[in-house]
Write a structure and sequence with these properties.
The chain is built from 5 helices and no strands. By secondary structure, it is mostly helical.
Length: about 100
């Protein structure tokens, strides 16, 4: 496995399971297997979703000033940007991405 991406055993276990996927094997790159890319994407996206749910939505809900809301919106945009990076990098979602360009 080329990298653990900071997720340790969970990443290793997920890559092992995902390596069984013929869909992901088709996405292998010279420097990274499709299962590795997808495992990294799933774990990173999960962290971003958790951050929005546990930190940023409550930040908006308890905001007392417009600046706090604006800051939370900016942070949510950054998390979504990060999620979209992984959606694109994973290579599995081109058909979905094409459908939302309109």
């Amino acid at each position: 496995m080329s990298q653990f991406h900071g997720f340790g055993d969970r990443y290793v276990s997920l890559v092992k399971k995902l390596s069984e996927s013929s869909t992901l094997r088709k996405l292998d790159r010279p420097n990274e297997r499709g299962a590795e890319t997808f495992a990294h994407a799933l774990l990173d996206m999960s962290e971003s979703f958790k951050k929005v749910e546990s930190e940023l939505l409550p930040k908006i809900e308890r905001a007392e000033h417009d600046s706090e809301i604006e800051d939370a919106i900016f942070q949510i945009r950054e998390e979504v940007r990060h999620i979209l990076y992984h959606v694109k990098d994973a290579g599995l979602f081109e058909d979905i991405l094409e459908g939302i360009k309109d």
